Amino acid sequence: MFRLMRNIHLGLGLIFVLMALVFALSSLVIIYRPYLNTKPTDIELTVPLSAQATPRDAARQLMSAHALKGELRQIQEKGDTVRFRIVRPGENAEVVYTPSTGEAKIKMRRHGALETLVQLHTNHGLWHDYLPSNLWAALSLLASIGLLLLGATGIYLWFAHHHERLIGTILLSSGLLFGLTTLYLTRLQQ
Amino acid sequence: MSNGRLYEWTKKIHMYSGLLTFTAFLIWGITGVHGVFLPSPGQYLPPPVSSVRELPFKTPGSLDDQQLAKAISDVIAVPLAGGRYNIHRDSDSNLAFNIFTINGGREVTYLEQAGIVRVAHRANSLLSYLSSMHTAHSRRHRLTAYVIAWGYFNEFSTWAFLFMTGSGLYMWLATRPRLRWAQLSLLASAAFTLALWLSIR
User: Nearest to residue A68, comparing CAs of A130, A112, A16?
Assistant: First the structure.
């Protein structure tokens, strides 16, 4: 049994090692953001599209002919212009399309690797129109389940080390007592 | 330090870190599973109103809406208030705004003619609460001693998590680096994760 648990612990750790790094590093980016350079790069450009296109058609043209990738969000029609966004983790394009002329003005914001990690961390839900976002969310789900299983198998492996039981019990109960007490007392402050 | 002693100490600290921060991992794991099943922004529905309270309040008269919202916030003293937003006039021209809290938002309406402030609480679920708490760190949610203490614990756990990722890899390489299925597991998952990373870049 010990051997099986050790192999499961190792296997889960290796399968999710990169996702663990994504979550750990992105958390540190969030915490230490004031000290890091996470400024995005902004680009503005104007491109011609076919006139009188629907917002979805205009977005599709931008994706196929102008290398924009992501999902279409927040379509707003106002006067003779249509605004929408094409979003994916790490990049956000705000588009103002004029159907009468076919002109599309794009404000593109591209984030560096650190901020992209943060956006992957917070990329949740399996409802995205952009397949990689759904795949990341699915991978996050598996990594979260993997984390819980790593914790459970880790507890088993610790308990099998008889000479570590006393100090381990003190550490585990201290962490549980501290964490659960602070969470419980905060929850009471309604 | 000999390789044997380095391994033994790494294993000890790996184990102790995991035991001490187990609570945080539990919360992160639960929050991660919960997050995947959240609805899209367009389909989000706030939780129902769980309680309403009314307090008497008289307008000083010379305050604009922003200042008045602040004055009302000071009087109603919502526990764990994280900031006011959406300050506006409702359909009856009453000043209305929202207050975010870890334990669910408040909808505040000032019934100026009657001199009453109405505070509606939309208590969130335990999972939403844990989701908010999993974002706490040494500089975020500095509201009460309990939240600050949790924030430090959460931040410490993040470092411990990073350490355990590195030390776990080291312990594998130090003991069983030629394990074929382990090599393949790492290779396959790394290839998939990297491919996914490249697809969005």
Answer: A130
Q: In CATH, what is the architecture of A41-110?
A: 2-Layer Sandwich (3.30)
Residue B140 pLDDT greater than 90, yes or no = no
For residues B16 and A174, give the distance between their C-alpha atoms in angstroms, rounded to a whole number: 11
CA-CA distances (angstroms) from residue B9 to A135, A173, B102, B165?
A: 38, 22, 39, 15
Residue spans of the domains in chain B: they are: 1-37+124-176, 48-123
Contacts of B170 in chain A (CB under 8 A): none
HSE-up (13 A, CA, CB side) for residue B31: 19
pLDDT band at B116 (very low <50, low <70, confident <90, very high): very high
Residues 6 or more apart whose Cβ sits within 8 Å of residue B119: B52, B53, B54, B55, B76, B78, B106, B107, B108
For CATH 3.30.160, the residue range(s) in chain A are: 41-110
Distance, CA of A29 to CA of A49 (rounded, Å): 38
pLDDT of B61 reads: 76
pTM of the model: 0.89
ipTM > 0.85 for the complex: yes
pLDDT at residue A101, rounded to an integer? 92
pLDDT, position B200: 86
Which residue of B12, B20, B103, B143 is the best one to mutate when testing the A interface, meaning the one whose CB has the most A CBs within 10 A?
Answer: B20
Q: Which residues contact B147 (CB under 8 A, 6 or more apart)?
A: A182, A186, B80, B102, B133, B136, B141
Whose structure tokens read 């003005």? Answer: A105
CA–CA gap between residue B187 and residue A14 (Å, rounded): 9
| Identity at B5, one-letter amino acid code | R
Asked if A138 has any chain B CB less than 8 Å from its own CB, the reply is: yes
